[in-house]
Amino acid sequence: MKTTDSRDHAAQARASHAATVAHDTAAAPVDALRRRLLAGAGAGAAAAGFPALAGAQGKAINVGVILPLSGANAQFGINSRNGIELVAEEINAAGGIKAMGGAKINLIVADGTSTPTTAANVAQRLITQNECVAILGAFASSLTIAISEVTERRGIPLLTMSFADQITGRGFKNVFQVVSKASVIGRAQFNDAVGIAKAAGEKIDRVAIMYEDTAYGTAQATGLRAAAKDAGIQLVMDDAYPLGITDVTPLISKLRASNAQMVFPVSYLNDSLLIVRTMRQQKIDLPAIGGAAGYVIPDFVKGLGEFAEGVLSVSPASHDLAPAFTERFRKKYGYFMVHEALEHAVCMGVLAEALEIAGTGEGGKLRDTLRATKFTKGWSAAMTGGAVKFDDTGLNTLAVPVMVQWQKGELVTVWPKDVAKAQARWKGKLV
Which of 161, 299, 321, 426 is 20 to 30 A from 69, alpha carbon to alpha carbon? Predict the structure, then answer.
């Protein structure tokens, strides 16, 4: 198997069961969670298969991985790559895809940077030059949307943990989203925070929203807005800000003047650090409830220190709900399995299970298998809901967000209570 990057792990290549990784660039009580999701949600391209690869027994199966491995979101990309590689290595060590003669997973990892056009071009190259049977990625919703245009035309599956509603909202047949969509995550972000406040004895009447003006931010803000309206709670601030913002002082000044009782920021890492740090430096101590992404990775607490303590965030999955799986990640990489790593691991696990069932990497059959199957084996069980089942749009119907909180430097699941691993704190009060 080819290796085109020094990261392809010479040691792993020598190991008989390791995944071969080639870089294409220059460089639980899960039933309770499922019931909660179902209650809260109340609310054609021609296939282009690659017979030489898909039909050959025992031959390597090329899987494309597109992630932001450079730029502002590089750490998310690295985390995601780590999760995917872990699962691919485990699959290969267990004998590969047995229905395809023990074919090994060959990951071809490419940097999508932070530019949708670049990500789309990379996807085209992985499909036409590397004959990838599927694509995994790309963390940032804007990149994933661009990639999905390519995979849809080429008729091969794209498995993603990106949030934006648009991903599965366009009638595409070849895109599969293992997490809840952003508007559902936004509703959970709002409703769970209000639930925690109520349990602490505080009645919430006024809230603030600030969000990055991207596909992810705007979609999740839509869910927050709808939840506030349903609850009859006033939005005293509802502000978008541009990608790459470097000065949030005007936003924080407006927040202070709004008299909000809590704030819901939806942002990636750099923005989250700026927002929370500026709030605390200005002695604004109202609760901040993050929108996943930058709020639920080790870099958040590293960047903020004591300012991170008590910060709540919604999360589409959590490492402490599936320790039998996630501790394998911690042992290998030395830090807890952050949500994007976990969800991308699930993408890899679902794809492997689909390949076993289909017995081929041919695009149409693989797509149909992904659409028709409830995935329950291996890493599929690590997702909230304990399994993965896609609806006609490609959305995982079993996923449900949870609320997590930074407590003494650790990120723990605190809500809903029936799955919590620690008590939530609201303004220092345990609930």
Answer: 321
